[in-house]
Amino acid sequence: MSKPTPPKANVQAAPKAAQSGAKVAVRPNAPAKPSKRPSILPWLGLSIIWILLDQLTKLWVVARLDLGAVVEVTSFFNLVHVLNPGAAFSFLASQEGWQRHFLSGVAVVASIVILFMMRSSSHRKLAMLCLASILGGALGNLLDRSMHGAVIDFLDFYWGNYHWPAFNVADMAISMGAVGLIIDELLFNKADKAKGA
Question: Pairing with 174, which of 6, 22, 50, 161 sits 20 to 30 Å away (CA)?
């Protein structure tokens, strides 16, 4: 009488490389892809907000105040309506007219440069805030020069008989952006460079 054959054990076959004693090569991990820089589109939206705010306030001044009008608001602030053929705070305003085309060209070149700076600085929020403000202010005043041949100014601060040159919202955006860029460079960007050194 034949003996029953014992059931075969359910053992998985070892890999051939392990059976032969060969070393298994480990595939190195693929290099990590560099992270994308944040988009500059939201900051360009901020520039557009500055332009709209600048142009709307100027439209209000043109509609409410005659050219050359002065409205006393406080003991140190007037609303005025003046045309400034020069740059911010009446710089070059006394020249004979060449400054219109010169300053328009400067605004175009500066805007292009700022766009390139925004692309390379999109990870620095304060710098982007400042660059977007400068861009909006530069384009706001550029629109004035292209439409009126001069920039509309209406904010007049004074102390006693001394009047600071009249300015507008675009000038405020440019000035605050420039000061902010200096602060960012001195306090934050230098510190980041020092850490990376």
Answer: 161
